[in-house]
Write a structure and sequence with these properties.
Blueprint: E1 21-31, E2 36-38, E3 41-44, E4 49-52, E5 59-63, E6 73-79, E7 96-101, E8 105-110, E9 116-121, E10 129-137, E11 141-146, H1 153-157, E12 164-172, E13 177-185, H2 186-189, E14 193-199, E15 202-207, E16 211-216, H3 217-224, E17 234-237, E18 240-243, E19 263-268, E20 274-277, E21 282-285, E22 295-300, E23 306-313, E24 323-326, E25 334-337, E26 341-350, E27 353-366, E28 377-379, E29 385-387, E30 401-408, E31 413-422, E32 425-434, E33 440-445, E34 456-461, E35 464-471, E36 475-485
Antiparallel strand pairs: 1-36, 2-3, 3-4, 4-5, 6-7, 7-8, 8-9, 10-11, 11-12, 12-13, 14-15, 15-16, 16-19, 17-18, 20-21, 21-22, 22-23, 24-25, 25-26, 26-27, 28-29, 30-31, 31-32, 32-33, 34-35, 35-36
């Protein structure tokens, strides 16, 4: 039977939690600034305050003095030591945070003390790097993307053209090393580019007309690298003399794309929505017309053929759209979430047609709406027949509606948050389902009210549940639930 770090247990034999397992609200805190959570650590006050959530009661790890506005952190990634690798510094073996500040500084902070372990200056006034930290390969290659370059209004009126849209800085992590910096230029990729992203070695370029194009990012780095540089290296580059990653020079733009790279794939999709996954590889798009919003096509990446039953449409009438994505458990399945229904779909070969795939339903999870009757005709106590002028929406707040669906990889559980709002009071519960079959294993009612008009995040980490919510006037709260095993009834659980 698995044992959590705090000594509590859950029963994985037979695929269910113990009946005696409860989750108790042990701690709540409030903040005037956003609250973040990373692997057992709660960060507040713009990462100046760190609280561990692993102990019986959350406790302070460190509290730093308030930073200046110029040092404000805009984004962060957690770095964890790779197993079985020799690293140059003892600090590399402990968890750390890579953070991005408003003044173009990339900092590596100790996750245990907040101490600055490394500093890299990204660029001067030519571009702004903030808010955009992401993984190309998780825990291996990191991308820092600049904000979109826009000329001042006066320069645009004078007819001055801006050709560089974005800069991408690429780093290897642990040890932190500079791979290169490149620009996304209108002259190479076209004038209608709206955004770019990098994931799993693929450069994804998005266009205003809904077009999405994919390029081999690794091949681009190798083909167009002019000269490699190391952090701290002295350089003389295009008339500039300085040190790589030091103020005021920053990083050299040493990857110059001089010709359009070979195109791997392109597709047109509404709002640039495009996903790749499954086995064999498939992609999901919405046809690029507004009338098709909420309709998803699942097609083969190899030849663009639509899978059998590959058009998925829940036909729900709701304010919030349904959403679809490839299951993060790497099973190749697909999760389709609507207001009151979660479908887990799988790709399978069509019988007697090994080269054709079809979409089949693996299992479904249905919201509990037994007490919600959506009748258009009501008979009053006096016998008068009253007809409703409007039908009830599928995500009407007074009906139980799915708001969050997540996957917990260590325990192989699918978690869902369903909310029902009566008046100003919204009640939510977190449910755990068997990831293989969808059966309900445990339901945890959340004590705090849930306001559907504001943003919420829910994390499940081993024997811990965190609920981070935004309240009116940008007030934030964090509620921590701990697993307890007690055969006696506990009203606070």
């Amino acid at each position: 039977m698995p044992v959590s770090p705090t000594g509590r247990t859950w029963d994985s034999s037979g695929g269910s939690f113990q009946e005696s397992t409860k989750f108790k609200n042990v701690w709540t805190t409030h903040s005037a600034s956003p609250i973040a959570y990373e692997r057992g650590r709660i960060y507040m006050d713009n990462y100046q305050c760190c609280i561990t959530s692993i102990a019986q009661q959350p406790r302070l790890i460190y509290q730093k003095s308030k930073c200046a506005k110029s040092e404000k952190i805009e984004d962060a990634l957690l770095l964890e030591c790779p197993l079985g690798e020799m690293l140059p510094s003892p600090s590399d073996y402990k968890a750390s945070l890579i953070v991005l500040t408003v003044q173009n500084w990339l900092l590596r902070l100790s996750a245990d003390s907040g101490e600055v372990l490394e500093k890299v200056y990204l660029a001067g006034s030519c571009c702004k790097f903030f808010r955009y930290l992401s993984w190309d390969t998780p825990q291996e290659v990191m991308i820092v993307k600049s904000a979109q370059n826009k000329l001042p209004a006066a320069a645009r009126q004078a007819g001055i053209q801006q050709s560089v849209l974005f800069y991408l800085a690429v780093f290897q992590v642990l040890p932190l090393s500079f791979i290169g910096m490149l620009e996304i230029n209108k002259k190479i990729f076209g004038s209608s580019v709206t955004d770019v992203a990098v994931s799993n070695g693929i450069l994804i370029v998005m266009y205003s007309m809904g077009l999405v194009r994919l390029y081999n990012f690794k091949a681009i780095l190798e083909q167009f690298m002019e000269q490699p540089f190391a952090l701290g290296q002295e350089f003389n580059w295009n008339g500039q003399v300085g040190s790589v990653g030091k103020y005021p020079f920053g990083l050299p733009c040493n990857i110059k794309i001089t010709d359009t790279p070979p195109l791997l794939f392109e597709a047109s999709s509404l709002e640039n929505a495009f996903q790749i996954g499954g086995y064999p590889w498939h992609y999901i798009i919405t046809p690029n017309k507004k009338k098709h919003k909420g309709v998803f096509h699942i097609c083969s990446l190899k030849d663009n053929t639509l899978a059998k039953n590959g058009i998925q449409d829940m036909k729900c009438c709701s304010l919030e759209p349904d959403w679809i994505y490839f299951h993060p458990d790497m099973s190749g399945r697909i999760i389709h979430v609507g207001p009151n229904l979660i479908k887990v779909l799988k790709l399978k070969e069509v019988k007697n047609h090994a080269d054709q795939m079809e979409i089949a339903e693996d299992f479904t999870i249905v919201a509990n709406r037994e007490n919600c009757v959506n009748n258009n005709v009501t008979v009053t106590a006096s016998g008068r027949v009253v007809k409703k002028r409007f039908a009830l929406l599928d995500d009407d707040p007074e009906q139980e509606t799915f708001k969050i669906v997540d996957y917990e990889d260590e325990l192989d559980l699918l978690s869902t948050v369903a909310v029902t709002q009566i008046g100003a009071d919204g009640r939510a519960h977190l449910d755990f389902h068997c990831n293989e079959h969808g059966s309900l294993l445990k339901s945890i009612p959340l004590k705090e009210s849930w306001d559907v008009t504001y943003s919420h995040e829910v994390y499940f980490d081993k024997d811990l549940v965190l609920h981070i919510e935004q309240k009116p006037n940008r007030r934030f709260s964090c509620h921590v639930y701990q697993m307890v095993c007690d055969t006696a009834r506990d009203d606070d659980s």
